């Protein structure tokens, strides 16, 4: 469910007409619904009622500080994968003891900054990283809390580029080597081994891969405890998918996911962390764009819009589907017409949809790309010297620009010409 609905023939973001935002900030732009963000966070939080738990929002999905602050005030922790994300979370007012630091390539300087600023734990991905954290912790005279990310070799049945739990993926240590690696961690000074971390992929639409992975984690917990390790926290990652199209069967609900966690791991008495990102932010955002031209091609018509692949790269990168709706609701009985919806970037891949049925549209009309709240603005670029588009947040009948559109002068003046030119 989201809070982007037609009212009196016009698409609204909560209580604000989308066309009103377009008239104020120009197009294209992202718009996020506060009510949807909070609803989706609370679904996860409530799904784990009765357990000691923390829902850490995976902020790589959408990291504007307004989004982070909204979720943090509701009780969310944060999962970060770079020192930039860590500093962004801190700037949004998230305390260090609610920040989990994941990622395969943490540098010594990143480790130092996080230890000095405070954090909940490092999710360690390799033995060299473990040794680097130990060295920095010793240098600073502190103890670094860590979990070790294990790779359970489970097929998440998702897109190959976002599967992370198979043996050939770069993430974590093989679960078959876990006892050896945990023994190594326990012997290193400056580390406190507190738990296990696992994450098998993103946009999962079935619960079975989670169950297979979590049963392996449960068995490993018992083995490691028998070896003398104080395993008291289980970080289970995120990955639950969202419905990108109304015609597809909906992925499992957070309530079902929470029940699975309790069934497979509840007997261990561990604190549970989960790291949802896409399901919290995905359907909480739209990318709104305006039609520039309607172009007749050979056997097909093109809607050329002012958003492009640099603004939302998912269709080009993953062949991802996003539902697309006109901002003005079509009258009953209006016949849909197939369009290729494309942007102005000089790439054939700059295509949002092919032969997508829509009511007849004309230059100047607005469209809304749904499910764009996750991995939309955060993956955007200035390719073709196109400015990053504004981000807007709606709260009831109010809206605010939470990232403005830069000017061309600001973009161009960032370049520095060397003296010899």
Description:
The protein is α/β, with parallel strands linked by helices and 421 residues long. It folds into two domains: 4-31 and 282-412, Lyase, Ornithine Decarboxylase, Chain A, domain 1 (Beta Barrel), CATH 2.40.37.10; 103-274, Alanine racemase (TIM Barrel). The chain is 28% helix and 25% strand. The chain has helices at residues 18-25, 34-47, 65-73, 83-91, 108-117, 127-140, 178-187, 208-226, 254-265, 278-281, 314-318, 408-412; strands spanning 4-7, 10-13, 16-17, 29-33, 53-58, 77-80, 99-101, 121-124, 144-151, 173-174, 191-197, 233-235, 271-274, 285-296, 301-305, 324-326, 337-342, 351-358, 366-369, 391-395, 398-403. Strands 4, 14, 15, 16, 17, 18, 19, 20 and 21 form a nine-stranded mixed beta sheet that branches. The longest helix has 19 residues, at 208-226. Mean pLDDT is 93; it is low at 158-167.
Summary of the model, kept short:
This protein has 421 residues and is an alpha/beta fold.
Relevant terms:
alpha/beta; globular; TIM Barrel
Q: First CA to last CA: what distance?
A: 56 Å
Q: Which value, in Å, is the CA radius of gyration?
A: 23 Å
**Class by SSE composition:** alpha/beta
CATH C-level class of the largest domain is: Alpha Beta
CATH topology title of the largest domain = TIM Barrel
Strand content: 15-25%
**Low-confidence spans: pLDDT under 50, at least 5 residues?**
158-167
Helix content: 25-40%
SS element count, helices = 12
Going by CATH, the homologous superfamily of the largest domain would be: Alanine racemase
Quaternary structure type: single chain
Number of strands: 21
Largest sheet report: 9 strands, mixed
Q: Output mean pLDDT.
A: 93
Number of domain units: 2
